[in-house]
Specification:
Helices cover about 65% and strands about 5% of the residues. It has ten helices and two strands. A two-stranded antiparallel ribbon has the order 1-2. Helix 3 packs antiparallel against helix 4, helix 4 runs antiparallel to helix 5 and helix 5 packs antiparallel against helix 6. The radius of gyration is 21 Å and the shape is globular.
């Protein structure tokens, strides 16, 4: 039996490499036995163990259920149409985490590679394509005075420009989705650079820090701390992990809507 070369964990193409496609059944079985949890399970190989991936899919689905409950509770406390978009964020994060559960199932071989790719694209659409604009827009609408809303305009413009660029990049360049260190890595060559990252952080976290609403500042601080922690410990999986932890931080939004129920709606000017 010919020797199959070892492969390290890394980007997984949508089709298996030649050494897998041309391997005999016995060779594939041998490769399966040598594959660790960090390797991608090609559907053509009948690997029956991928506990880390399965657990992560379950975690995403369970997390999305909890976040959906938080989202419904938050929306029930909305008292003005200007509050609606910001109050919708926990629900949007719930949908986002639910989508990533299908990415895990696709990478695990339980669902098809096409599902993994399409759901990965949907995940990136919200995480990188829409959030840089939706977040500052939600704060802009929430701010009670014209002066406070004017302060949000630079972040709204930066977020809008970043969103347009990223939406173009997501359609113009091929997306890579793979597993590394039990986390999902999303790579787009046009968005995976420092300049885009800085604009993204300014649009999302910066707009929160300049709000006159104290809860917004607290939410921004929580997200910035999470962002820095992910950059230090797992930069390669930034998109997936930051969105997951930011979703957890959205409980701050529920706490605000719950505790400020009597002081809202604002007298919008």
């Amino acid at each position: 039996m010919s020797k199959i070369p070892h492969r390290r964990a890394g980007p997984c193409p949508l089709t298996p490499p030649a050494f897998i496609r041309n391997a005999t059944k016995a060779e594939r079985t041998s490769l399966c036995r040598r594959t660790t949890k960090k390797h991608f399970a090609f559907p053509q190989i009948s690997c029956t163990f991928q506990p880390a991936m399965c657990f992560s899919a379950v975690a995403n689905f369970a997390g999305s259920t909890v976040l959906a409950g938080i989202g419904i509770a938050t929306l029930s406390r909305v008292k003005h149409r200007r509050e609606l978009l910001f109050a919708t964020l926990p629900t949007l994060f719930a949908i986002h985490q639910f989508i990533e559960g299908f990415v895990w199932l696709g990478l695990d071989g339980i669902l098809s590679q096409k599902v993994a790719h399409n759901m990965g694209a949907a995940f990136m659409l919200y995480a990188q394509g829409l959030l840089p604009f939706l977040l500052p827009l939600s704060i802009y609408l929430f701010e009670p005075t014209a002066k406070a809303r004017k302060r949000m305009l630079p972040f709204l413009i930066i977020g809008g420009g970043t969103t347009l660029y990223i939406l173009w990049a997501l359609t113009a360049y091929q997306l890579e989705v793979y597993v590394k260190g039990n986390s999902i890595v999303y790579i787009n060559p046009a968005t995976n650079n420092t300049a885009v990252a800085i604009l993204y952080v300014i649009a999302t976290c910066g707009s929160l820090f300049f709000s006159k609403i104290r809860m917004m500042v607290i939410f921004g601080a929580a997200n910035l701390i999470i962002l820095l922690a992910v950059m230090i410990f797992k930069r390669y999986a930034f998109t997936s992990l930051w969105c997951a932890y930011a979703a957890v931080a959205s409980i701050i939004i529920l706490a605000y809507f719950w505790t400020s129920h009597k002081s809202r709606p604002f007298l919008y000017a």
